[in-house]
Amino acid sequence: MDRQYKPLTLSEFEDIVTNVLWVSIDTETTSLDWKTGQLAGISIFSPKGYGYIPTIDYRTVDSAALLSGEDVNVVKEIVRKLFESTPIFGWNLKFDAHFIGSFPEKCVDIQTGYWLLHEEGSMSLKTIAPLLTEQPEETYLDYRELLKKASEYVHGEIDEVREAYAQAQSLLYKSTKKTEGSTKAVALGEAKLLFPKPKATIQDIPIEWLVEYAIKDVVLPMLLWESVVRDNLIADRLLGYFHSYEMPFLRTLWKMERKGIRVDREQLDQVSRDARATMLDTQAQIDMIVGHPLNVNSSKQLQETIFTELGYAPTGRMTDAGLHSCDEAAMQMLHETYGTETNLFELILEYRDAAKNEGTYAGKIPKLLHNERLHVSFNNTGTVTGRLSAEIVQQIPSEGPEAKKIRSSFIPKDGYVIIAADLSQAE
After folding, report:
1. Helix/strand/coil for 45
2. What is the enclosing helix (H) or strand (E) of 46?
3. 52: left (phi > 0), else alpha (psi -120 to 50), else beta?
4. Which end of the chain offers a freer environment for a tag, N or C, measured as fewer CB atoms within 10 Å?
5. Buried (b) or exposed (e) across 32-61, using 16+ Cβ within 10 A?
6. Per DSSP, what are the bridge partners of residue 52?
7. Within 10 Å of residue 356's Cβ, how many Cβ atoms?
8. How far apart are CA 420 and CA 103, in angstroms?
9. pLDDT > 90: what percent of the chain?
10. What are the residues whose beta carbons fall under 8 Å from the beta carbon of 233, sequence distance 6 or more?
11. What is the CA radius of gyration of the chain?
12. What is the 8-class DSSP label of residue 418?
């Protein structure tokens, strides 16, 4: 990469965003989770220029050039004031707004505009930009590639890190040299836990590389907006809809994500305990029926036991590998056919249902709570039909006593109720 890119000073940052008609903005963060992550820097692009200002300490930046904690607060306040009156452009602005702590009054999320025109396919800037700007995809490094480069840089050029890792590897080798077989494998695993290979973080990325990467994340969206997205929205008579409906809706989603929903942790814990008890009970009954321990989670073991060992006739459902399927539909078909002879398939279905309730919902949701509230990320550009997509809450089961307990663990604000509604849509 070109090493000419330098981070902005506070005065340079202020100058670029003062008295301008618009600003394109993007954030770099230490995590994708705004509740636990930290704002690592802000890249900006306006009619006056562009640049990147770090808001945390970087190991590759002279400490004298880093902002003080007070200056970082000044930067955040400048951005918040920009959000009050200046048109703010960006790619997936909802994410950036979480780390800034406020949502732009005049928001232009270019990713949403592009999605209105191209509902299918990737919404990744790295994938889209080369197609529309006629530049090679290699021009646009993604964050994982930057970290890989940083890892090579850190391990190859920072002597103390390289030396510490070399010493650890030497100790590991000596501790396992006379050990053989599986014992050696265990010893190696334990040694690697004691001496893990150092991994690069955003703070290890050479600042010139990061600045170039961050600047592209604010310049490219504006290039797409000016050259493609805006004109096509006008041509398709969608520009008014975009500003009047999609952008206010994005603000609503941001507020929903910030607010989260209160969850009854104790009730979910009880559902989780009940599900684990059900799994143990059904597993014991299954093992008794087949005459040996059976891993219900292993499709191979199920196929061999059900169709070969016990001799039940296959359902006709096949896997992509050409084997007899043991999925839920197949088990349901077998239960309907042989239910009067055996309760094996009913037990397998019951085990799977309990495992899903425990592993996907009751056992997982409590680990995601922040101040006893679940904060879900709603993706407005994730489906062709225009529906929202969201992890966990999108597919919470609706039938069965345990499913009802999981749903009732979401608690509305005092004086309010939660309404479930569905739309019958003519596709």
Report:
1. strand
2. strand 39-46
3. beta
4. C
5. eebeeeebbbbbbbbeeebbbbbbbebbbb
6. 43
7. 17
8. 27
9. 48
10. 113, 116, 117, 239, 242
11. 27
12. -
Give the residue among 346, 200, 344 at the shortest CA–CA distance from 286: 344
Element holding 288 (H helix, E strand): helix 265-290
Tell me the C-alpha to C-alpha distance, in Å, between residue 261 and each of 269, 364, 375.
17, 15, 7
Q: Which residues are paired to 42 by β-bridges? A: 27, 53
Give the confidence band of 212 by pLDDT, cuts at 50, 70, 90.
confident
CA–CA distance, 270 with 261 (Å, rounded to integer): 19
237: left (phi over 0), alpha (psi -120 to 50) or beta: left
| CA–CA dist 301, 322 (Å, integer) | 16
Q: What is the pLDDT of residue 293?
A: 93
Amino acid letter, 2: D
Per-residue DSSP letter, 324: B
Per-residue model confidence as pLDDT tens digits over 159-191: 444 454 455 555 544 544 444 444 545 554 554
The token pair at 89 is 């452009």
Cα 170 to the center of its chain, rounded Å: 37
Measure the CA–CA gap between 30 and 285, rounded to whole angstroms. 48
Q: How far is CA 264 from the centre of its chain?
A: 24
Place of tokens 């090579």: 152
What are φ and ψ of residue 46, in 5° steps? -145, 175
Q: Could you say which DSSP state residue 317 is in?
A: -
Q: Tokens 């749903």 map to which residue?
A: 407
pLDDT in tens, 40-60: 999 999 999 999 999 988 876
Dihedral, 284, 287, 291, 296 alpha carbons, nearest 10:
180
Residues 6+ apart with CB under 8 A from 249: 380
